[in-house]
Design a protein that fits this description.
There is one protein chain. The protein is mainly alpha-helical. It contains 4 helices and no strands. The radius of gyration is 24 Å and the shape is elongated. The relative contact order is 0.06.
Length: 104
């Protein structure tokens, strides 16, 4: 897959050089970098930091264990090979809560 992207980028740059539009390629490259950083990467990082902080608070307050205990019967049926005392049940409970507590 990396070779495919490399090939596409090189074709674009070579085509820009051959047609004499090197400046347009450079401007488009910087605009794409600006858009990807300011519109995608920074907001995604901020959102991820926020939810990781919320989950850290849930772990420290004991909410994850309470969710795990609540969903333990369902979790044992869904994941029979997972031992009953493992931290995996907490993760399954979190995921189940996230999937089913979503507003519709």
């Amino acid at each position: 897959m990396n070779y495919l992207w490399l090939g596409l980028i090189l074709c674009g740059v070579l085509l820009g050089v051959c047609t004499g539009r090197t400046e347009a390629v450079t401007i488009a490259t910087f605009e794409a970098c600006k858009t990807s950083l300011m519109s995608i990467a920074l907001p995604l990082g901020a959102l991820m930091a926020f939810w990781l902080g919320i989950m850290r608070l849930a772990e420290k307050s004991g909410a994850v264990e309470k969710l795990a205990a609540f969903f333990a019967p369902r979790s044992k049926k869904t994941f029979p090979r997972c031992s009953s005392g493992s931290s995996g049940h907490g993760c399954h409970g979190d995921e189940y809560g996230r999937q089913h507590a979503r507003p519709r």
